[in-house]
Design a protein that fits this description.
Number of helices: 3
Radius of gyration: 14 Å
Strand order of the largest sheet: 1-6-5-4-3-2
Shape: globular
Largest sheet: 6 strands, antiparallel
CATH superfamily: START domain
CATH class: Alpha Beta
Distance between the termini: 38 Å
Oligomer: single chain
Length: 130
Amino acid sequence: MDSFELTQDFPASASLVYYAWLDSESHSAFTGGGAAIERLLGSRFTAWDGYITGSILELSEGKRILMRWRTTEFSEDSEDSRLEITFENIEGACRLNLKHSNIPDGQGEQYKSGWDKHYFQPMLKYFSKL
């Protein structure tokens, strides 16, 4: 199984980034793809117009999200991957740390670059405008 960790700072508070991640309208706005997500333990979510699906396993308000996560590129017999996101306030910004594990072998690099291109870069633009 593949895994990696990424860190990115955003020009917003940790709580703002946390709540935006768990809000369908905000999540859709900062990625450019439709999302259906809510801040509810055990709830199912979709992102990127259904390309990503999963469920919320743990929430620590304003600080941490743990999810089951998969894309349409996972084979049917692949387990869900795990996505842990932590949010920390640092000098007028939010430091987001993303740990993505249990990814099917050979797909890790693709998702690592996808997080930067399809999430972090658009999020930087989105939070810079708020």
